[in-house]
Fold NADPH-dependent FMN reductase.
Amino acid sequence: MTESPKVVAVCGSLRDDSSTRVVLAHVMAAAKASGAQTSVIDLREYDLPLYNGDKKDAGDAQKLRENIKVADSIVLGTPIYHGSIASPLKTALDYCGFDEFEDKPVGLVTVAGGRFPTPSLLHLRTICVWLRAVPLSHQVGIPNISSVIEDGQLVDNTALERAEKLGDKIVEYSYLLDNQRTDPPTIG
């Protein structure tokens, strides 16, 4: 890893006024304040057709994989749609594999217009485990999202604190897991 870790966020919402993007901005600002180099993958800027195993490099799949692979850690953000994650994020993750995610810390962010977005957090966590990533125990799930955002900013102190804590934690785990990868413990 470089002197400062690279944290990449992937925004699974395509909406112009995305509340997911607002929360991710707070997470990434905290990560940057903790010393990370940060960038956001905006899936609106990628041509990613529905995944077809016979066409693994369709559209911008290779560009997406390259932009995720260089990350030391990743933050995934999505609105909850029908009890799960948004299809743009699922499609993007389908194009990825172990090369992009294995042994990397992953922060999870989900937002909901109504009830707490527990199912989407669980689905993201499951995907991360299948990709051999390390989903952090601290995660951000925000219900009733329209009530905590004003003028493109989180205005609820609890939601803001959770988002900022995730930004801090993703940087902390970037260092921790990098040390474990380069200096494995001696057994025996």
About this structure: The first strand starts at residue 6 and ends at 11.
